[in-house]
Write a structure and sequence with these properties.
Blueprint lengths: L1 H25 L7 H7 L28 E4 L7 E2 L10 H10 L12 E3 L2 E3 L7 E7 L2 E8 L14 E5 L3 E5 L33 E9 L2 E2 L5 E3 L2 E6 L2 E8 L19 E5 L7 E9 L1
Antiparallel strand pairs: 1-15, 2-5, 3-4, 4-15, 5-14, 6-9, 6-15, 7-8, 7-14, 9-12, 10-11, 12-13
The protein binds magnesium ion.
The site of magnesium ion has 7 residues, from strand 7 and strand 8.
Length: 285
């Protein structure tokens, strides 16, 4: 009798767990009440202003080497399309739901940013674009220009960003004579690593990033085996020296890893500013 009761209890627990798991997988991606959040501004808790990286005078651009995959050569955005989700994760809860729901069968709309005179320009308010091809560890070169826009300041002055694997942001911002929190300025691993120096050129001038990225590695059970690392050279100057990432970029709260594919598309952020891009190429590592 006791044995039958025990078996029934185990059976009920099993049914409950299965039901909970189904409920979880059916959940929609949560959203944030931005109006309510304006009261407490929880993002400010992770903004650091000290130290402010010192300024240095920079240089340098280069064309693709023979083994590079060219992602933009001045002609068109054929290598790009719009991602399934256009907002990069505000916090880990949203990000985990986005990763869990990403769907290989999704039909991506074409990238609609503006191609003009051999460069392309963020179409303000249209959302991010991402590469059709997925990449893991890579060497990436890209060139960007922050338009001169007096009156803008802080995070609102030429904000965009390179999201490695669509998850890990290297910030793009005009910080030539524009201060913001140090771990959110140009060349920061956003809210994780302050750049060693500020190698910015003035707005209106082209700048380069050379990025060496090692993707995180997960075990088959989803346990983190090794974190992502990144090295960033801004205008020929080392600004991030093989730093370890704590997880995907989040705007609110602390990052932590969530298992994902070994290769994912590279993403460029639309933050509402007409940042220009040219000469983008990548080499798989
Ligand atoms: Mg950004």
């Amino acid at each position: 009798m006791i044995y039958i009761l025990k078996m029934k209890t185990i059976h009920l627990i099993f049914l409950y767990l299965t039901f909970s798991a189904l409920q979880l997988s059916a959940q929609d991606i949560p959203t944030l009440d931005w109006d309510a959040l304006q009261e407490t501004k929880p993002w400010e808790a992770t903004e650091l202003y000290d130290p402010a990286p010192p300024k240095v005078t920079p240089s340098l651009f280069h064309s693709p080497p023979s083994d590079a995959i060219v992602l933009f050569d001045g002609e068109d955005l054929e290598a790009w399309h719009k991602p399934q989700y256009t907002y990069e994760g505000a916090n880990m809860e949203i990000l985990k739901a986005m990763i869990a729901k990403d769907d290989d069968e999704y039909k991506h709309p074409a990238a609609d940013w503006i191609v003009k005179d051999g460069v392309f320009i963020v179409k303000q308010g249209s959302g991010a674009i991402e590469t059709k091809e997925a990449f893991g560890s890579m060497q990436l070169h890209l060139e960007f220009l922050s338009p001169y826009d007096p009156g803008k300041e802080g995070q609102a002055y030429s904000n965009s960003g390179v999201f490695l694997m669509g998850l890990y942001e290297i910030q793009i911002l005009n910080n030539y004579e524009n201060t913001t929190y140090s771990n959110g300025q140009v060349g920061s691993v956003y809210k994780q690593h302050i750049p060693l120096v500020n190698a910015s050129r003035p707005p209106g001038e082209w700048q380069s990033y050379d990025i060496i990225f090692n993707a995180p590695v997960f075990s088959r059970y989803g346990k983190l085996k090794s974190p992502a690392t990144v090295t960033v050279i801004h205008n020929g100057v080392l600004i991030q020296n093989h730093v370890e990432l704590r997880g995907p970029t989040v705007y609110i709260g602390q990052p932590n890893y969530t298992p994902h594919a070994a290769e994912l598309p590279l993403r460029l952020q639309d933050h509402g500013d007409a940042v220009r891009y040219r000469n983008i190429w990548v080499r798989r590592l």
